[in-house]
Design a protein that fits this description.
Blueprint: H1 28-48, H2 61-68, E1 73-78, H3 84-97, E2 104-107, H4 111-128, E3 136-143, E4 149-158, E5 164-168, E6 181-185, H5 193-200, E7 209-214, H6 222-231, E8 238-242, H7 244-249, H8 252-260, H9 269-280, H10 284-287, H11 302-307, E9 309-310, E10 315-319, H12 330-347, E11 354-359, E12 367-376, E13 379-389, H13 393-406, E14 410-416, H14 421-432, E15 437-440, H15 444-459, E16 463-466, H16 469-475, E17 478-481, E18 484-487, E19 492-493, E20 499-500, H17 503-515, H18 544-547
Parallel strand pairs: 1-7, 1-8, 2-5, 2-6, 6-7, 9-16, 10-13, 11-14, 13-16, 14-15
Antiparallel strand pairs: 3-4, 4-5, 11-12, 12-13, 17-18, 19-20
Length: about 550
């Protein structure tokens, strides 16, 4: 346990009195320090009144091992939510606060991760009583090999030593020119880990340190391949491993119990562990026990999808049994459902530019439609999600056409045109025209071009989605296969007890691709193929040059 030493009073002299508190409004830093000290004082008081076997030190043993490791490069293969990033923040504060120390750079994959890390650093700075400025939001200039610059939001704390902690909200293309300690968090979920490591290793030349920590994300993931190279002696890096069971043995449950108090419902370690493992289900081996899954790793981490979810976004479901296809009143019944359920939702949407995407399913999988609305400045919010199960082709067409005809400021939709979806997509194309509708024959090449921007939107929190465990499960069916994102062959049981197969994830990537669709040719662009594409429907095929052309 690390404690700041108290100054001793000289013999024969009274201890120096602390200066009287300043009057007036406290600064942001003073407020932040006071808050963190209050929290720790409450925890210390709770610990004093609890059995001394509970959490005898601030850092658990595996956290102490990580902070105490001074190797040039250290890699931590870890379970989720065991306080790994939290304890690394303490090392970053000590590193930046020391005279003769160095800067500390943190790289996660989302703004929430960066903000949480810098908040932990502020807490540690207060606990260690290290002189530090208030946390600032700054812009980090990220320059690529071509010299192009983009700006990444970052959070910064400056210390009296002259060094700083800088937490980036997304992965930079380059960190060349930086020196100090760099932490790459959840490394298995970064798109270009190899390129990021190559840039990070340059910090070692001038005495820096590199810290890489992550849970697993598939057997073929670059993070797992890095671990294999360490284990076989190909790389001289220090490897740490902490499974959920090892963390429990080190006192994790007791720490959670100490912090949560009466809010923790599980009274024993066994009950709590069973609850956590049940929540992860089939993913427990990879997420908690550090055993990489076979094949490609999950492309969308659960935490990434969860951070984009907001309450209040409706999810509509319409399901019918197989025999309903022969019901002569199916279209009439569907129109009643549209009037009673779907129309009120669409009528309540704000008048913002709207796009959509649909993953088509008929008898086995769902049909899923996602509608996104433009909030401005590159940000989009889901208007609603529509899931159709066991719905005949003609009824699906009725519903889709109603959606497209009534969406406010409807701009574009991309439709799954594979297999059974081809006829459905073609009908929409014929009715609304190619400026509004694209029939997508999704291929590995199309996924490779469109999944990364969709993931980046989540990392930057440029997209707000409906809160749903089904949606999370769908996105976790997207894996990395041969370096490209694609949907695996597995199925999940949804909240309705029926099978799902990544349906809303595919609808989501189609809808996000629609957000980038030009409604008309960009300035200076030549239009060669289909001159009717950007004409009003009433003008299509009415040019004189083609009206009376003779058949060949």
């Amino acid at each position: 346990m690390i404690k700041a030493a108290k100054p001793k009073a000289r013999a024969g002299k009274k201890p120096a009195q602390s200066p009287s508190p300043r009057r007036g409004k406290p600064s942001a830093l003073e407020t932040q320090v006071a808050h963190h000290r209050k929290v720790w004082d409450e925890r210390d008081a709770a610990a004093a009144s609890t059995d001394k076997t509970l959490a005898p030190a601030v850092l658990l043993s595996y956290q102490q091992d990580w902070v105490g490791d001074k190797a040039d490069v250290a890699v931590w293969r870890k379970s989720r939510r065991i306080g790994a990033s939290w304890c690394d923040a303490s090392d970053s504060v000590l590193t930046a606060a020391e005279t003769g120390g160095m800067d500390a750079l943190y790289i996660g994959y989302s703004e929430d991760m960066a903000r949480e890390y810098i908040d932990d650093c502020a807490m540690w700075a207060a606990k260690f009583n290290r002189a530090a400025g208030a946390m600032q939001e700054v812009m980090f200039d990220d320059t690529d090999a071509k010299g192009d610059i983009r700006q990444i939001k970052a959070f910064r704390i400056d210390f009296a030593s002259g060094f700083k902690v800088l937490a980036l909200s997304s992965r930079p293309r380059s960190i060349r020119g930086k020196q100090g300690k760099v932490t790459i968090d959840e490394a298995a979920f970064h798109d270009d880990l190899a390129g990021l490591l190559k840039a990070a290793m340059a910090m070692l030349i001038w005495g820096g340190r590199v810290r890489i920590l992550s849970s697993h994300n598939g057997e073929d993931n670059p993070f797992n391949l890095l671990i294999k190279d360490i284990e076989t002696g190909k790389l001289p890096y220090k490897l740490h491993t902490t499974t959920f069971g090892q963390a429990l043995d080190a006192g994790l449950y007791e720490r959670v119990k100490l912090v949560m108090g009466a809010r923790l419902k599980e009274k024993t370690r066994k009950e709590w562990e069973a609850k956590i493992r049940a929540q992860y289900g089939e993913g427990a081996a990879e997420e908690l026990d550090c055993i990489p899954s076979q094949g490609g790793g999950t492309y969308f981490p659960r935490t990434l999808v969860e951070r984009c979810m907001k309450d209040g976004i409706p999810i509509l479901r319409y399901s019918k049994p197989a025999e309903w296809v022969l019901n002569d009143r199916r279209l009439a019944e569907a129109k009643i459902w549209i009037a009673d359920v779907l129309k009120p939702v669409i009528d309540n949407l704000p008048r913002l530019r709207s796009v959509a995407g649909q993953d088509f399913g008929r008898s086995g999988d769902l049909s899923a439609i996602k509608v996104f609305q433009d909030l401005g400045a590159g940000r989009w919010r889901e208007g609603f999600v529509l899931e159709l199960r066991g719905i005949p082709f003609d009824v699906q067409q009725l519903i889709l056409f109603f959606v497209l005809e009534n969406l406010p400021l409807f701009h574009h939709i991309k439709l799954d045109a594979r297999g059974n979806g081809q006829s459905h997509a073609e009908a929409a194309l014929q009715k609304f025209g190619p400026a509004r509708v694209e029939c997508v024959m999704a291929s590995p090449t199309w996924y490779a071009a469109n999944f990364p921007p969709y993931k980046t939107a989540m990392e930057d929190q440029s997209l707000e989605m409906a809160r749903s465990e089904d949606v999370i499960a769908d996105h976790r069916r997207v894996i990395l296969k041969n370096g490209y994102a694609s949907v695996d062959d597995g199925h999940d049981k949804g909240s309705d007890g029926k099978q799902r197969h990544g349906d809303t994830a595919i609808a989501g990537v189609l809808a996000w691709a629609a957000t980038r669709q030009e409604g008309q040719p960009a300035a200076g662009e030549s239009v060669d193929a289909d001159r009717d594409a950007f004409l009003p429907d009433r003008m299509a095929n009415r040019r004189r040059a083609t009206m009376f052309r003779k058949a060949a």
